[in-house]
Known about the structure:
By secondary structure, chain A is α/β, with parallel strands linked by helices.
Amino acid sequence: MDSLLTAAARLARGETTAERLVSQALEQVEAREAELHAFLTLLPESAIEDARQSDRRRASGGARGLLDGIPWAAKDNLLTEGVRTTAASRILDEYLPPYSATAVERLGAQGAVLLGKANLDEFAMGSSTEYSAFGPSRNPVDPSRVPGGSSGGSAVAVAAGMSHFALGSETGGSVRQPAAFCGVVGVKPSYGRVSRYGLIAFASSLDQIGTLTRDVRDAALVLGAIAGEDPMDQTTATAPVADYLAAAQAGGQGLSFGVPPEYLQEGVAPAVRDEVERAAARLEAAGLRRKDVTLPHTSYALDAYYIIAPAEASSNLARFDGMRYGPRADATELIEAYRRSRGQGFGTEVKRRILLGTYVLSAGYYDTYYLQAQRLRTLLRQEFLRAFGEVDVLLTPTTPTTAFRFGENTQDPLAMYMADALTIPANLAGLPAISVPGRAADGLPVGLQVMAPPLREDLMFRAAATLEEVAAR
Amino acid sequence: MLAEQGLVARMAALARLELEGGEAQGLERDLGAILEHVQRLQALNLEGVAATFWTGETAQGMRPDVSRPGLDVEDALASAAARSGRRLLVPGLREDA
């Protein structure tokens, strides 16, 4: 499958049509979906109709830009008006939202064609899609392995050539980690850069919508299309959105970067560590300057995250009670109806996090756990800001290992959580970060992560574009 | 600590979450292991460090308090399990429940 920008150029030159692009994407879905299970809902009829409308606009000189007529997939925790949105949970099975997420609206307004809703771990809680209530997705590189998660279906759709791009969401690495496992590009923007309106909330101080694409320039284009202030989300940043595509095209020559040693320590597979060192050497050869930086509290980020995120989740998920949406369990009394509806509607991982969050917020434990975690968050952010006083960007692995096999971590929640150990710090600090494919190790993709200062996605894209170019060599 | 008998059941009651047969036992074991791990944070002296609850950079202030169209009642109730006219219909509340 062509990159988004290549497909857009072919559309502009009249070498293809939106209808043909959508048909080709649907053919690929037909060929691989039974094996890979990227989607929870497919929209073939509306996609073809939307594509035809795009072709008519283009024929009359009214194309809406580079995204007009390009097929894409949305993670199924993004609300889509009148289109089934489940968050991969039984408690939202058959839910039809009355409105669409701002990011979905913005892509629609620019003519992008929604192909379907992509699989995920239930309520975005997981790192493999094994916690989807509707069954896992499979990694297109090696279907005996997980695609990563929680935005696993979105990553699979792009990696398997079913979709030119996809949106996912991040709370602790749910875009970058599956991107790394599937060999595509994943971006988590700064907190506040993209509206969260219409994203089913997991942990509101951490959640951000992100992109999955075939290359860095496509990521820059898609992020630029969805970023910016939104009156429907008071946490969106008012700072202007830079021209990310121009930044990616400019490349990273002249920038400085650091490789914090804390990201290469125990638990990181030797092949992954080697790939980061190799990429760092190639970046230096390409004209970027390497400087030493250190982030001493990194190893505590995972601990803080698994206090803060469940705490926020336990509050956010209180709204799912069988009254306003989803199936209601049989009960003659209100509290009993809540308990049964939630007990039957949520899977075990969601229950685990709700209970954990309830515990750390309960009387007597709030200061010990929750407040201590939020203080650690301050230290992490301060350390990052100090490091960014020394260098423009940071280079690290995205994940400690390559994609693991199904069932390898489902019996041990802590082992599963470790998959996000290197992505979580950027979420806690609100930084933009991107995963770019490095050279494969034993045939499995390795992700290289670039982190940048808050709201400096332009620096991130500049460095990532050069990294993409040199890492593949 | 969570190893304490019955704590998961108490948290489940607070969270209004029914747990099936053997589920509580597995969750008690998992949560015990997770909490033991995150205990590492207690070893850090963070006295005097301010908490960060939110990392927004240049967020909007309060928006003007003006009325604007909201969600239509029919749309809002479309996914409800039960309704009565323009209202949600829910089971009765028993105080001793």
